[in-house]
Each structure stands twice: as structure tokens, then as C-alpha cells.
Amino acid sequence: MESVQPNVMCPPPPRTFKDREELITYVRDFGVSQGYVLTIRKSKRDSNVVLGCDRGGGRRNRHKSEAPKRKRKENSRLINCPFEIIGKKEEDVWVLKIKNGEHNHEPLKDMSEHRFSHRFNEEEARQVKEMIEAGIKPRQVLETLKQSNPQLQSTPRHLYNLKTKIREGNFSERSFKSWRPNASAVGASSENVEQMKVFNLIGGKFVESQGVVFVDVINPATQEVVSQVPSTTYEEFKAAVFFSKRSFSFMEEYTCFQSTAYYDETPRAHTQRQSENAKYEKLALIINTEQGKTIKSAHADLLHWLEVVEHACEITTVQWGKFFANASNATDTYSIREPLGVCAGICNSNFSSMVPLWDIVNYVCDDDDIKAISCVGSYKDPGNLGTLLRSALAFKWNGVFLLPGCCDPFNEKALRASRGAPFQIPLVSGNWAHLEAFSNEVQVKMFAGHPAISNGFKPVHKLSQRLAHSLADTPLCLLLGSEGTGLTERAREFCELVSIPMADNFESLNVAVAGGILMFMLQSELEDAQT
Prior knowledge:
By secondary structure, the protein is α/β, with parallel strands linked by helices.
């Protein structure tokens, strides 16, 4: 029996639409799949439309007196549900924005219980109009409609209401272009909703890709497909490179001392910052939808983004160079700083450098100049990991290999401890099979830090200058275990063990301290040999 994921009443994912009707149809269909119904509250046909949950608002008290003489049973579905979304026209497209994505009630288990499911759709309303004008009795009209649609739930009451509108001349086909919910919200699927295809930005314009393969972008919270990313063709890739190269040739003609750049580019950066602040909530919602992060975490990511934009506002000082008069006999020297271009990578939220840097593995294996790599086991403490990354950068190790179970090197605590080292040293993530293949291909000597002088099963090297000197010309990989569990059994079998001599009554060092000592000692003699 196939299990069905319960509805969580999520708001519709943000996207753009070509017109107002497409937006309304999309959000209503999505609401049905989540167990709630959306109605139009306010609308300006050419600018915006506000939709809310049909259980929003409250029952109006039509009796002015505080103690009415006649008491009657009052029932109302309105419970002031705060859910509300806004569709706004921006330039040539309609943009969906979530004003309040929370409900204060449970989802409907069966949409057939809702009164909207009894409405006639557009085609049925036309048929009713034609049969009423032809003189056919209402009972026969209803039987004819049920023959063509056995699931029709409209009652004679709905038919007579529609008949009255037709006779009074209040019939409007546009009012029936809305929708009729599915019979069950639990079994509803988003497959009927046309997913947004992501366009390529080439030459400053969004261009639809001609690729035939698309990758679905999944909302981790609801498993809904929110968009589709195309596999860009070779011709489209070459076109993007051409326009980027042409733009770089154009921009390198300007410097910070020219009026065009100074008075135009800097205000443009300020304008971009104001624009991003205005779309702050929209950007946070996109991060929440596509990466599964909480809204609070998405806001933190955007703060880092805005810091980069604010730094761009000071581009004039960043581009300052240096000038040395009479550096030599009749010789002046100067240096200039110019942008090298733009590089972008799309990757997953954690290990955000892992996907763009996958190719580094090949360079590490093939480069003759790389002699030493630091390998980190499964660390749970981001502070220790950040300290080790900082030590690896300080002692000029060539890269860091992260084994499964290791925490995110771009964790906030890890970044503070590393002082930005993950952005300056190559990081590669993989498993033991990748590490063993790398070791066999490049003939790397595998060492693992061990707290004890003796292992009992295999010898343990004692860290010393003599040991470091003997490894001066040898490609080396240093493996460090976690603080709590230490080295795994596989690490002890696969690597040679090395320990740091300590006083007899001292058991072990913190893994970050021990790793720093090992990396310094094993690198120092290697650096001398390389120079």
C-alpha cells in the first residue's frame, strides 16, 4: 500500500507568471493539494491581486444591540485565518509574494466536503445556459451533466441559483473561469501544475534554454518540484562565454579614477543594495523553499550577501594601486588592481564549496608540485575543524580531504575558528575509496596521528626532526581522527601511526593542538627540501 505524505499546509513556492489568471490558477491548485482553499480578497486587474484563506475574517455582527431579544444558533467557517498572499505585476511578469504563510486551522481531509467543490466549472456553466434557454427542465439538465461527469457534486440548489442569474442577466463567463477543487486533497499532486523553467542569463537577457534534459529543484520540506533547471547546450555555453569576455573587455577600459566609473558604478552598487533590501523577504523565502533552510537562517545568509554588496560600494578604494618613485636608477614602478571577471557556481547548501571544487581532485592527483595533503576524519566539533584548517593554511599544506561524517567547514563556528581558511585552501570531500585510490595513484605515504606511543598491533612512529627529515621528499597525507572516538579501525589499518612525545602522566592533547604540531613538524623539513 502506497503511503501518502500528510499535508503540511505550506504556502505556494515563489515564482513568476505571464499573467494574472495563471497566477490565480496556480496558487488555488496548490492550495487544494495542501488542504486549504484560497479566495480573492482584493484585486486591481492591471497591478495586483490579494488572495487569502477562505476561513479568514470573522462573522459580522449585524445586530447593533448588545443584548438581542432573539437568540439563534450562529455558525460560521470564518476563524480569522491570517494566511495571505499577494500577486504583483512587476514589469512584464506577475510575481508571487507571501505576506503571511501561517494557518490557524487543520487542513481539509476531503475537498469534496468543501462548498466550492459543488460549483459548476466554465464548460458546465455554458451547457446549463444553453439548455435553460432551450427550455429544458432543471432536473433533466442536472441528469445530463451527471452523465458526462459522474463525479459532479452540484445540487439542484446550485442549478436554480445559476438559472436565476441567467434570467436576471447577471451571468458572467469570467466568474466561472476559476476552478473546481479535486475530490481529495490527500491524493492531489503538483504534477498538473506547470513548473517554472529556469532561464539562462546570457548577454544581460534571460534566454530559454534549448536543452532537452531538465533537473528538478525540490523543496526539501514538502518534496514539491518548485522549478526546473535546464542542461545548457554547448552553443549556449559558448554564447555566455562570448558575452562575458566582451563585457570584461569593455569594463577594463574604465578605472576608479575615471569619472564614468567613479560617478556611475559606485551609485549603481548603492542602488543594487537598496534593491536587495527591498526584496529581502522574497530572497529569504526563495532560500527557504529551494534549500530547506529556516527563515531565520535564510536571513543570516542574506546578511553575508549584503556585506559583499556593501564592500562593492567602496570599489574605488579597493582598486587603488601602488606607485614607487625612483625605485631604481631612473626607474619608477607601479602596480594596478583590476577585476579578473565573474565566476558563479550553483551548489548545495552545506559543503557549498564541494561541488564547484570537485575538479580539484584531478589536479591534486596529477600535479607534481603537490607534496602534502591534510586529511580530516569525521569531526563533530566545528571549532576543532576550523582550527585545523587554519593550521593547514598557515603551515602551507596543499589541501584538506574531508571524510564522511565531518561537520560543515562553512559552519559559522568553523569559519570563525578558521579565519577564512576554507576560502584559501582547497577542500575536497569524499569517502575511503576515493582516498585509497588517490593514495595508490600518487604514491602518497599515509600517516595517522595516534595518542599512544605503542599500539600493541603495529609500530607507532615517534614524532621527531629525524622522522620529518626522512619524509622530506615524500608526498604525505596526514589523517586526524575525531576528538571523541579517535581513529577508526580502518584508519589504523590503512595508515602508519605517528604520535607526539609527552610527559608520562599526560594522556593526550586536543586534536586541534595535536594536528597543528604534526603539520608544523612534518612540513618544516619538507619546505626546506622544496626550496
